[in-house]
Amino acid sequence: MERKSTISEVFDIFADDLLAERSARPLVIIGASKVDHLLSEMLRTFLLPKCAKAKNQDELLDGDAPLATFSARIKLCRRLGLIDETLYLALERLRALRNFSAHSISFNYVNSPVREHLAELRKQIAVRRSYRWTKETYLGSEELQPIEELQCLLLTLCVLLEAIRKSVQPTSGSKSSLSIAGK
């Protein structure tokens, strides 16, 4: 009988894959994709169940739906109080980096404007305890090379969002509004 992987095993596999990548452009795209997925899962957990049939896409979160974009998910998670302002700003910085890496011919983390985006992301993430934990857990205690620092920044965002995702409880809606709607 095949054993199902636990969430932490799946996350560790993702972390190993991210740490194996040694080029900045794919790192940013892969890291942002994981972050986008985690935001989507947080929203799926928190929001009331979809109205669409089980076999159909979620009418808010999938395809070309209103909350199917990275930007919309970041903003909604902030407005719902699932993430704080500093994490929101870091995710917006990652979104800008992801867009630049996906839509620019030239992408080098030592050149402007990528350098400035990374400096802002570093300023928002590297001061956190979760960054130090991620560094020690996944990269060791030595001084990081620039590509390793990028890996650590991205992995820290994923670690934070994974922890938040695990703590999110489904909403039951506004009891007073639902009561009025039922009359």
Query: What is the CA-atom radius of gyration, in angstroms?
Result: 18 Å
Low-confidence sequence ranges: none
Mean pLDDT: 90
**In this structure, how is the largest beta sheet organized?**
none
The total of helices stands at 8
Tally of strands: 0
Sheet-strand content, in percent, reads under 5%
What separation lies between the terminal Cα atoms? 51 Å
For the record, the count of structural domains works out to: 1
Topology diagram in text:
Elements: H1 7-20, H2 24-46, H3 70-79, H4 85-103, H5 114-125, H6 129-139, H7 146-167, H8 175-181
Helix pairs in contact: 1-7, 2-3, 2-4, 2-7, 3-4, 4-5, 5-7, 6-7
Question: How would you describe the overall organization of this protein?
Answer:
- The protein is mostly helical.
- It has one domain: Four Helix Bundle (Hemerythrin (Met), subunit A) (Up-down Bundle).
- Helix content is 64%, strand content 0%.
- The chain contains eight helices and no strands.
- Helix 1 (7-20) runs antiparallel to helix 7 (146-167) and helix 6 packs across helix 7.
- The protein starts with 6 loop residues before the first helix and ends with a helix.
- The mean pLDDT is 90.
List keywords for this structure.
64% helix; 183 residues; 8 helices; Four Helix Bundle (Hemerythrin (Met), subunit A)
Quick recap:
With 183 residues, this protein is mainly α. It has helices at 7-20, 24-46, 70-79, 85-103, 114-125, 129-139, 146-167, 175-181.
